[in-house]
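In the laboratory, one determines a bound structure by crystallizing the protein with its ligand and collecting diffraction data. In a computational setting the workflow is compressed into a single prediction: the sequence and the ligand go in, and a structural description comes out. We illustrate the idea with guanosine-5'-diphosphate-alpha-D-mannose.
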Amino acid sequence: MKAVILVGGLGTRLRPLTCNTPKPMIPLVNQPFIESMLIRLRDQGIDEVVLAVQYLADRFHTALGDGSRLNMKLHIIKEDEPRGTAGAVKNVEHLLDDTTFVFNGDVMTDLDLQAMLAYHREKQSKVTISLTPVDDPTQFGLVEMHKDNRVHRFLEKPRAEDITTNLINAGTYIIEPEVLRYVPPSQFYMFERGLFPVMLQTGDPMFGFPSRAYWTDIGKPQTYLDVHHDILIGKVRYNFRGQQIADRVWLEGDADIHSSAQVVGPVVIGRGVKIGRGARVIGPTVLGDGCQIGADAALEGVVLWDGNEIGEGATLRNCVLGRNNRIGAKTMITDGSIIGDDCSLGPENRLEHGIRIWPGTSLGERAISF
Ligand code: GDD
Ligand code: MG
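The predicted complex, in structure-token form:
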């Protein structure tokens, strides 16, 4: 079974985390997001995947190669210019021959793909769209259906007054490649504003597949943190790497944890991590490879990428740190704050209220209280 994953977007909403790292490559529980997605697809019977990329194609090549490391066949295809969601699939049409899955590349879900495929076949559908309920559909594609789940309206980013249902496009499709005849070649063209509305006019069968599977768009800082917390507390099916050394504490390699330090799961600890005397690491928390947590530091609900050094007595709560930051003693980072990569923050700063610090920033002692 083949699939196309759309990974063209710039990930601007996730800056500064995406300043140096394309959105699909940002780590989810210490593994590039796209890699965990590929593994999830592979484990559900998809063995050949086309990644439709727009920029930084080399980064994808370096990290994933031809897919053989993951036991699958991978094609990384770069668009000359942005083709839009449907245009991106049209662009790789020569690699497709049969019923194909298409995925938005920024969605975390544990949707049952085989159940969706069986449904697509039973309905003899040409396009099947997975649907999920959300509180506020205005940021998504609203999907209205008849009683038999045949789609009769698709409205991308609806205005508040157009909201008639809480079911939205969850960003997983099954398509019959023949529908790509409606997509103009070498042009920018979207499923959401182009192909789906067109198919409603031509009368080609298009069905919705509502599901209560776990679903989140990882494209915003708060949802990025939420997804980590949901995975760690077990709200979504997830295969943890590494070894469970205590109640919901997973160790991915060697670590040096001081006997007086406290680690309360769910916590994932990367390779080569050091946790100092009296430090407290409270879940749901992820520590990337090579992180060093100073004595008496207190961490709770945080995601640290690789190579962070946290000073003595620092407090980190509900925040994300990119790679290789140095955080001074007694500095406090809380409330959804996001630190980019390679920052050096001196002692006794206070970064709160979702502040975002750009990569390479240096701060002296007590320079910021926000
Ligand atoms: N290759 C390629 N080329 N990929 C693209 C392009 C393109 O020109 N444009 C967007 N993508 C990729 C993005 O990287 C992302 O993985 C996916 O297509 C969807 O684009 P977003 O920019 O993230 O769209 P959205 O989140 O505002 O809305 C989409 O997703 C919602 C669910 O999360 C729509 O499909 C909505 O209908 C849907 O509800
Ligand atoms: Mg999105």
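The two ends are 51 Å apart (CA to CA). Keep in mind that any predicted model is a hypothesis to be tested, not a measurement.
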